[in-house]
Structures are given as structure tokens and as C-alpha cells.
Amino acid sequence: MRPGHSTDYLHILVVKVVRACNLRCKYCYYINxxxxxxxxxxxxxxxxxxxxxYRDYLSAQGRQGAIVWHGGxxxxxxxxxxxxxxxxxxxxxxxxxxxxxLQTNALLIDDAWIDFLRRYDIGIGVSIDTDQVSHDANRVxxxxxxxxxxxxxxxxxxRQAGIGTGVLSVAAGAADGRHAISSLxxxxxxxxxxxxxxxxxxxxxxxxxxxxxxxxxxxxxxxFREWVRGDDPSMRIRLFSSMILQALGRRTTFLGTGGxxxxxxxxxxTDGSLCMDxxxxxxxxFRISGGYSTGLNVNDDDFTFDRAETLIKAFVSDVGGDxxxxxxxxxxxxxLCGGGxxxxxxDDADDSHDHPSAHCKALYKLGCETLSYxxxxxxxx
Length: 381
Ligand code: SF4
Hints:
The chain is α/β, with parallel strands linked by helices. It has 13 helices and ten strands. It binds iron/sulfur cluster.
């Protein structure tokens, strides 16, 4: 396989294999009152078209890609249907070119799913919020019950079975940042993504759609202090390590601290339509603007991933995902923050992304704290 920078080509496909979930997380961008076609799932025909076209693209380039199975809750597809979809990777000749990951709330994990994950060598990410209070407040069943205890039990079960498991947490500003990190540490989490709640400047201006970001800056700074105080190199938090690396002049692939890597990723919806990163779904959900759908579908006769790559790269360039917004250029933490995720920069006042992120206040405070730590780590330890 040919080496190359990850931004050179479409190396990650996030596949929305089923549009259903056994939870009703309060911040969910996907399963909510606006969800169309709830319960639909990807057909074998669409999976086959996707595999054949991704195989052609990767084999022509001599490169590896990744499929991240997503939903909704992807395990709601059921053992037999998911196994059929995985077997198709061998049958279509895609298997040598990809590895698979799966993002799950883990509540359906049982011995059969553990066998499935082992058999198909699938890495797994478990969605678990930073601590029990925020998890139980947000990640609830349709009856409104919290799910922290069940999620932790599933995480332990996966770990005992030797399945490599990362964690994905949404930052809840109201939570205590120190407690959030110590809770993840107590669970033995070695790799976590802390994601900022999805939003953008247009959404934040409207009282009906704005989310409360007031406590987010303090949450992030407290979490960062606790993370460095632990001085535990085995615990990686991608938001924090990306800021540190970027401060040192290194490139990272984390979209929350800049958008250079956005052209390496596409979302494939259950009907086969090809879309931009999920942050852009917010613009369509709240009827603010377009941007999520590319207009391409893997089932179209003339669909190729080469064409998709060209279109996505043009979009990223159009929205300035490959550069800082003008308002960020003199910011002292611009190198660390990267202007935030391009989707969070959109403002309908001028229908453009050339604005500091809706998360600017939080990213600025975290960036300043990171610089302060790098100048003199001693007080932090
Ligand atoms: S902190 Fe704000 S102004 Fe500074 S780079 Fe980030 S988004 Fe731009």
C-alpha cells in the first residue's frame, strides 16, 4: 500500500447503517423529533454498491481506508444482517483494503456480539459521557431512564473479552471538569474523544435552537488541569493532545481543532447518499443552510469515489475548512484551536463560514491554558 498524508484521499467512511436507536440522548443530532424514515436501514444492494466503488477507488490508489459503522445504534441491525454485510467485504474484494470500526452505546453487547467483533476484527468506540451525572442526565432510554451503570458494565465486559475499546464523550458544560476526567480515569479509559456539543453561530443566535455553552470554557479548563495533573501518559484525550501538538507546530487530524482533514472523510447515509461530516447535518436539520448532502449517491450509475473526492475537496476549500477564518488570524491561540470545526463557524448573517467558531470562548480559554502549561508545567503537576 502506498503511504501518503491522510488528507490526500477519502480514507474514512462513516456509514449510517441504521436509522434507529434504543436511546434518546438529549443532544443527539441524528435521532430526534426531526428524524425522517426512522427505522430504515441500509439495503444489501446499497452496501454492495458502496463496497464495489470503494474497492475500485482504494485499489487504484493502492491505499487503505476505514469504515466506521455508525447509526443510530448500529447493533440494532441484528447479528445475522450485520454478519451478512461483513461477509460481503470478502465477496466484493473490499476486505484487503479496509479496516472496520464501530461506534456504539454498547447496551446490546452480549456474547454473540463479542464473538462477532472478534471474528471480523472490528475495533470499537463506546459512547459514554464524562461522568455518571452527565451521562444519566443526557443518555437516556425512551422512558427517560439513565444508562450509565449498564454502559459501564458493557465497557468492562468488552475489556475482559480483550476487545480494543475507545471512548467517545460529549462535553457537558454543566459537569465538573475535574470529576469528568477522574471518572474516565477510574474506568481505566486509555483513549477518549471529548466532543464539543454540535452547534454553529447561526444556531446560537436563535433562542429556539441555541444550546447553553456558558459553562463549557470552565469545564474544559478544569478537565485539562485534571488530565495533566494525572501525568498519566497512558490516558489520551484527543482534544487536549491535539492542542498541545498543534502548539508545537505539528499537524493533527482532529476536526475539532481545525478542518484540514475534513476532505478525508465522508458520511454514507442509509439510502446511499454521500454527505459531508455530521456537523453539517445541523445546518439542514434547522433549515439554516445546505452543505450536508453532496447530491451524490453510491447507487448512482455514474458514482465514483474519485468524483466524490473532487467534490468534497472543493466544498472544504469553499467553506475555508483548509484555512483559518479571517477573524482568527491575530488570535494568540489560533495555532492550537485551528478556528474550531468548520461546521461550527457558519453564520447566516452573511451565509459564510468565515467566522470564529461558535465554540470560540471555550476554545480560547482552553488554548490559553494549554499555552500556560507548555510555558511552565510545574504549577500544574
Ligand atoms: S479561539 Fe476563537 S478567535 Fe481564536 S482561533 Fe479559535 S475560534 Fe478563532
